[in-house]
């Protein structure tokens, strides 16, 4: 079998990294849930459990709950699934309630699992068969969102792209059952120069949402007002390398934001490849020295969101396609205090 697809990587507080890898040949297919131990050493240990139900032709999403007990993913292309982080066994899969997507983002607050499905419905289940929420957002937005566990609202972005303009729209929705599902605020930025934005990230302690759409990173307060806007790339650099902002990670202790920026496509000969991580002070929006990632100028790569381990290391994973139609996962570590 050859490797066909790999999920994003996630980590727990013990420095363990998890991912799902799908394999296939002409007659069969399967998938493996894997855990990497001792990843900060030169000889990490890999443990995997095979389960064909988790096979996917796509690079499915993977999330981990706060207690690091469960992993969440999309299985059978449209069903949510729960995996135990200790045994790596499938705990529960929703065979009846179709509504997940290959790019759904999963969150958990201890009372259930949240995600936005391929039909633009915001859903919540209790981790088994009980359905707790099913609301049509009617937003036409992306399936990526951030969840404020303290205030019980979600923030969802949407890029409105026309022939002449690119507009970033960020909306906050109340998800408290006692209040009802409703729009709280909406913020619009008409200065975007990108066809993709990052997922939003919320600092629960201060209620600030961070989201990037090149050339800017934006900080929005709990009332939907812009706190600061930092330019993290030049327009000339965006055009030369066909850059997009993929995703971001926030270290709430050091107050540093890490934004992954890469070339959108490497199959177009007029573009060179570029991959780097922009670093920004979350409190004041000051742009720091970026972390440049060495990739072949003509390589075909799909970078994943940075993973932060404590305040020391940042791990970046990317998928590289080969001529034999296989997918190779590379994981590299960098110091967070890169100067």
Give the CA-based shape. globular
Q: What percent of residues adopt helix (DSSP H or I)? A: under 10%
Structural class: mainly beta
Query: How many DSSP-defined strands?
Result: 29
- Global Rg: 19 Å
CATH topology of the domain at 1-136: Thrombin, subunit H
- On the 0 to 100 scale, the average pLDDT is 83
Q: Any idea of the CATH class of the domain at 1-136?
A: Mainly Beta
List SSEs in N-to-C order.
EEEEEEEEEEEEEEEEEEEEEHEEEEEEEE
Number of helices: 1
Percent of residues in β-strands:
over 45%
**What is the makeup of the main sheet?**
5 strands, antiparallel
CATH architecture title of the domain at 1-136: Beta Barrel
Q: Could you please describe the fold and organization of this structure?
A:
The protein is mainly beta. It has a domain at about 1-135: Thrombin, subunit H. The protein has one helix and 29 strands. It has one helix at about 235-240; strands at about 1-5, 10, 15-25, 30-35, 45-50, 60-65, 70-75, 80-85, 90-95, 105-110, 115, 120-125, 130-135, 145-150, 155-160, 165-175, 180-190, 200-205, 210-215, 215-220, 225-230, 245-250, 255-265, 275-280, 285-290, 300-305, 305-310, 315-320, 325-335. The strands form seven sheets. Strands 1, 2, 3, 4 and 5 form a five-stranded antiparallel sheet that branches. It has a four-stranded antiparallel sheet with strand order 6-7-8-9, with no helix packed on it. Strands 10-11-12-13 form a four-stranded antiparallel sheet, with no helix packed on it. A hairpin with a 5-residue loop joins strand 24 (about 275-280) and strand 25 (about 285-290). The longest helix has 7 residues, at about 235-240.
């Amino acid at each position: 079998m050859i490797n066909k697809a790999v999920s994003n990587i996630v980590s727990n507080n013990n420095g363990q990294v998890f991912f799902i890898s799908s394999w296939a040949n002409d007659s069969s297919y399967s998938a493996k849930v894997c855990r990497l131990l001792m990843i900060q050493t030169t000889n990490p240990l890999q443990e995997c459990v095979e389960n064909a139900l988790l096979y996917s032709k796509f690079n499915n999403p993977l999330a981990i709950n706060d207690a690091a007990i469960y992993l969440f993913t999309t299985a059978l292309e449209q069903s949510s699934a729960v995996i135990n982080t200790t045994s790596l066994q499938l705990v529960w899969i929703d065979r009846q309630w179709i509504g997940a997507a290959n790019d759904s983002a999963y969150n958990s607050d201890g009372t259930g699992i949240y995600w936005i499905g391929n039909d633009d419905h915001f859903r919540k289940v209790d981790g088994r068969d009980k359905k707790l929420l099913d609301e049509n957002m009617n937003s036409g937005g992306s399936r990526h969102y951030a969840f404020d566990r303290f205030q019980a609202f979600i923030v969802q972005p949407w890029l409105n792209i026309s022939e002449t303009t690119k507009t970033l729209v960020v909306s906050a929705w109340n998800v408290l059952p006692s209040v009802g599902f409703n729009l709280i605020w909406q913020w619009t930025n008409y200065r975007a120069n990108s066809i993709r934005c990052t997922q939003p990230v919320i600092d629960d302690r201060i209620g600030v949402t961070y989201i990037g759409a090149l050339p800017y990173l934006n900080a929005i307060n709990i009332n939907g007002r812009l706190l600061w806007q930092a330019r993290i790339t030049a327009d000339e650099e965006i055009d030369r390398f066909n850059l997009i902002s993929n995703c971001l990670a926030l270290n709430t202790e050091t107050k540093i934001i890490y934004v992954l920026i890469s070339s959108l496509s490497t199959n177009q000969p007029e573009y060179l490849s570029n991959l780097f991580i922009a670093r920004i002070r979350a409190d004041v929006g000051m742009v720091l020295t970026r972390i440049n990632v060495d990739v072949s100028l003509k390589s075909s790569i799909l970078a994943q969101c940075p993973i932060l381990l404590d305040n020391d290391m940042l791990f970046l994973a990317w998928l590289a396609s080969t001529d034999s139609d296989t997918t190779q996962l590379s994981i590299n570590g960098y110091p967070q205090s890169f100067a």
